[in-house]
Design a protein that fits this description.
With 213 residues, the chain is α/β, with parallel strands linked by helices. Helices cover 17% and strands 26% of the residues. The protein contains four helices and nine strands. α1 crosses α2. The model has no long low-confidence stretch (mean pLDDT 96).
Length: 213
Amino acid sequence: MAYKVKEIFYTLQGEGVNSGRPAIFCRFSGCNLWNGKEADRSNAICKFCDTDFIGTDGLGGGSFSDAKELAKSIISYWPGQFDSSVKPLIVFTGGEPLLQLDSTLTELCHLQGFEIAIETNGTLLPPSGVDWICVSPKSATEVVLRSGQELKIVYPQDGVNPVSFENFDFQYFFLQPMDGLHFKANTKLAVEYCLKNPRWRLSLQTHKMLGIR
């Protein structure tokens, strides 16, 4: 299978339980909820995405002919020798990573000692070999991936009520204030909701605050 990758880079995870953890990010091109073109944003299912996932022209991006070639490229971003006390992490994201991620790629990364995480909208089921699943539901979609480690709602969203997801099988439930012009007001709403509903935690995009990728 060939893969289209927007970018690959090494940074700190900025969100959720693993916030602050070093990780290699592999951002696949493409999404099933928006084509990534600004001219079509108003007609997209997901209208608030803040990520460029079009094409293969980002740092480390490209077209990879098979899983072996892509795994080799991803792994090359981990610095130096592996420390046996630290599990190295790869985060597959997008766009929507489950349009491309498969068990062949996850197996090759596992063979090199990596833990594998995904950030997905939950409309597709993952292949075998994913260790950490973060689902971020979007309005007007059917979430078929209903178990994992993190459920993270960008908040507030029209048509998305956090209560609707509390019967899903996740370890952690997060609200993340929607970025943009109303970020301050959205943060206040998310904080108030978490205080009233202690099952939910606040997730902040710390990488934006720190000015890192």
